[in-house]
Amino acid sequence: MKIKKALIVYKKSSYQKNLIDGGSRHYEALLRKGNLSVKDSLALHDEHVKSLELVKQSLRRMGIAFRAVDRRRVRGMKAPLKYDLIITVGGDGTFLDASHLVNKQLMLGVNSTPASSVGHFTSTDATFFAEKLTHLMDDRLKVHQIQRLQAGGDGQRVS
Prior knowledge:
With 159 residues, the chain is of the alpha/beta class. The chain contains 6 helices and 7 strands. It has helices at residues 14-21, 25-33, 41-61, 71-74, 92-99, 129-137; strands at 5-10, 65-70, 85-90, 106-111, 124-125, 151-153, 156-158. The strands form 2 sheets. The chain has a 5-stranded parallel beta sheet with strand order 2-1-3-4-5, with helices on both faces. Helix 5 (92-99) links the parallel strand 3 and strand 4 (106-111). It is globular, with a radius of gyration of 17 Å. 30% of the residues are buried.
């Protein structure tokens, strides 16, 4: 498979959303107190940022043009996209958000924090991303089709 152009859909870590971008006083207070719900958020943020950079570096080395978009901006994009491959960097939520843009393109999910995230829909992490991508391009990677389902009732669509 020839890949010329890829779209990276990434999540922002809770640390970034709440401290870097948002300046949440509540989140800051939880961090200062060492609250268990946010205790590891800086380490997870650093791991996520490193994963995203490794994916970008791999694409550059392989000569693949790419655009990186925050998953929150994906909702405003229209399908079908004109990319050969959609790469998600995050977890299952990021993968599912990006899936709404896909018509017939392939998706490759990268779990950005594998130590703390299951990443059921992701097939690799940043460490093995280049190897997986090479296997995909050489037609040595098994592709799985995942069906999306939409439900509704009384003429209303249920999200």
